[in-house]
Amino acid sequence: xxxNIDVMITAFRDGFQSAYGARVFTxxxxxxxxxxxxxxxxxxxxxxGARYQxxxxxxxxxxxxxxxxxxxxxxxDANLQTLARGxxxxxxxxxxxxxxxxxxxxxxxxxxxxxxxxxxxxxVNNLIDSGRSITNHGLNHEVCxxxxxxxxxxxxxxxxxxxxxxxxxxxxxxIPFTSVCFKDASGTAYPSTIHETIKAARxxxxxxxxxxxxxxxxxxxxxxxxxxxxxxxxxxxDLSMAPCSGGTCQPDVASMWHALRGTDYRLDLxxxxxxxxxxxxxxxxxxxxxxPEAKAVEPLIPWSPMPGGALTANTQMMRDNGILDRYxxxxxxxxxxxxxxGFGTSVTPxxxxxxxxxxNNVMFGKWEKFAEGYGKMILGYFxxxxxxxxxxxxxxxxxxxGLEPTTESPLEMDEANPEKGVxxxxxxxxxxxxxxxxxxxxxxxxxxxxxxxFLKGEMTTNVRKIEKEAPATAAGTGSGAGSSDKLTVNVGxxxxxxxxxxxxxxxxxxxxxxxxTEGGDDAGPSTGGSGAGAPVAAPMPGAVFEILKxxxxxxxxxxxxxxxEAMKMEMAIAAPSAGVVSxxxxxxGDQVTAGQVIATLG
Length: 602
What we know:
Layout: E1 3-9, H1 11-20, H2 26-38, E2 43-48, H3 50-59, H4 63-74, E3 79-84, H5 97-109, E4 114-117, H6 128-136, E5 140-146, H7 160-172, E6 179-183, H8 191-204, E7 210-214, H9 222-232, E8 236-239, H10 253-259, E9 265-267, H11 271-284, H12 308-320, H13 327-340, H14 350-364, H15 372-378, H16 391-401, H17 410-415, H18 422-431, H19 438-455, E10 484-491, E11 494-501, E12 504-507, E13 510-513, E14 534-537, E15 542-547, E16 554-555, E17 560-566, E18 569-574, E19 579-584, E20 591-592, E21 597-601
Parallel strand pairs: 1-8, 1-9, 2-3, 3-4, 4-5, 5-6, 6-7, 7-8
Antiparallel strand pairs: 10-11, 11-12, 12-13, 14-21, 15-17, 15-20, 16-19, 17-18, 19-21
Helix pairs in contact: 1-12, 2-4, 2-11, 5-6, 5-19, 7-8, 8-9, 13-14, 14-15, 15-16, 18-19
């Protein structure tokens, strides 16, 4: 009799992150959750990871409300699983113990059953407190060993012996767990390593321990890697459903079901009902923009291991900023960043650190500007990397960032940081006159200033859905009063859809007066300013994150005027000279281009 292999459906968390940069509205996909439940699935990935912050940052929704709704639709007996990042929980930065504990408490309260918990450095010390909190609050703790293949020519970690030692360290630390997952977010670990690793784990773990394997199909090897895992003794694999399957996502349930036909293994599900649920899911997502790279096999991934969710999230941000043409350079530069950075696994947040540093190396010159996360990682501020980072790069990072290398525990540093924890989050809520609840406290701790903006109702949505074109009217296409036209405008290679209504135009959600004159020989490109005073220009594309100075404010040379956000990095735009701010030419949330004048100094 064939062995049943259990399946967790990842379509509604990892699938969203990998295919849509995690930007999906809750109500849009709930019919697919119900259809998948009706098909007999009882194990869903239902939140956590990037799907926590993205709901606040892009969908303008509360992640706790989403989890409550997911539980309602999936049913009381469903195993709803979320993803956590050790001491980072669901943030990109690490947290002290009271926030780590609050994370488990809140996710239990809002209907979750299991938390899969990993540390991107495989530093077991970063899993101890989170594992205990998850268990203490009555949740299943699925502890992780994170995997990837090193770029060709590299050695020293990420082989079967390294993973066996990591598992030995987890057992020695007496971290409580109910299952063990070997998680390959970049889909680069190769079948022989996977098979050997799971074989070794089966010998080390207590009899009956549940072993799970997770990968992506980015390199085109997802199905064969899952075959290697089940043949070595894995009990469960993670699979997705179309349209969020293949490429940067997990392999499709149907693909894996077909691959196991005629073998000693079978998926414990009704494939015909699953295909019916996939049809519902495709309909739910039909008006979401699917970037072409989300469904592609990327042969460069083994050299530059980029997880599916990070790949599309970053290409989408580059697309938003009009610099997607630089992506091949960035992904090529990432290989060196990984080789020199100590071999932390390319999974959030380390995957973002790798990409940000590669991005900086391309845009600003090699090692001229350090991404904060990458620099802190190689300096030891997130724990011990699998191997020592390149000493020359460590030296440059220390000089550029003004930080000394450390071996101190990141958790203990957070415990001593007066700006982190429950009390500072509560103080921020009180200062803004917002309700102090456990949910709000965690939102602020995990999302920072954007969490406050969400709770104040100031966030906007940024979900990429395909707008349905209105049918043409008999009014014609004139530009006089009462007419309404859409034009695609090409500016420097960037395309913008402009909606004209009489003498008004709407571009990127902002309204502008429109005037048309003949000729134009005298007209040059407009920066939006009066032309007087010293210009303050954006060095690269990005969104206006914070405006720190206003008209009439005095500034010193080098003082920050505006903060931009690009590629999940904040960039301070400083005054080029001392003076008084004459004009601020942008608003919070505006998208700016490289070289655009965003303020002037008198």
